[in-house]
Amino acid sequence: MILGYDAAGEGPVLMLVHGFPFDRSMWARQLEDLKDIRRCVAVDLRGRGKSAVMAAGEWTIPSYADDVAATIRSLDVGAADVAGLSMGGYVVMALWQRHPELVRSMILIDTRSQEDSPDQKEAREKAAARVRERGTAALVPDLLPKLLARSAPEEVRAEVRRMFEETPGETGAADSLAMRDRPDFTADLTSVSVPALVVHGVDDELVPFDGARQMAELIPGARLVAVPGAGHLSPMENAAAVNAALREFLQEVDAAPG
Ligand code: MLT
Asked: Which residues contact 15 (CB under 8 A, 6 or more apart)?
C-alpha cells in the first residue's frame, strides 16, 4: 500500500521511517531542520496515523518495506535517501534486500541487524497479547523508561507517551509479531553498496551500542556517529546532533560522483 506522510522541503527525497510504537511525528525536528537540503518525507507505517486503513495481507517487516517501496515509487523520483529508527531500521534493511534500486543511501538509527533471541520472541508474543487486549499504552510502564535517557526533556517524554496512546492496539500487536518474525539482516550488511551512516544514542538501553559498531564495521565504507545525551530516540532527544550528522552525510552523498 502507498503510505500517508508529512513532507517538507524541496530536492532529493529523504524518506524517514519511524520505530515502534511511534509514527511520522517523531521526525518533526528533522523535517524542520533538513528541509533546506531535502524533500523530507516522514511516513506512517500501515495501521496508524495517515496510514490508518487496516491493509489486507501480511503484516511483516518485508511487507512494511514493500509499502515504503510503493510510496517511494509513487513519488516518481527514482531512488531516495532512506533513514529508519529501530523498527524503521529493520524496514530499511528489508528495503535494501528487496528493492535496492530504490535506495540511494541508507541511514540506520538506534537499530540492530540481528534477529530476536528465543526469549525476545517470547516477550513479543506476550506484548502482542497485552496490547491487543489493553491498547498499546499498556506498554508505557515497562518500555518508556528504557527508551529515553534520564536527561530527556519532559516535552519529549510527553510526545512519546502520546504516540503510544495513539497507536491502535491491533497495530501494536501486529508490529510486535512482525518484529518477532523478522529475518536476521547481519549477513546482508556486507552487500550494501550505497553510502551508509549508522547513528546511535550512547545511552540506548534497549538496543546496545555495540550492535551499531558492528553494523558500521560490516557495511563497506559506513560511518558511525555516537549521539551524546540520547537513549533510544536520539532524533528526538538530541535533534541538534542527529541533524548535524545527517546534514553532513547527505551533503557528501550529493557531492559523490555518479
Ligand atoms: C523500536 O523502537 O522500534 C523497537 O523498540 C524496536 C524493538 O523492539 O526491537
From this structure: 41, 43, 68, 71, 72, 80, 81, 82, 83
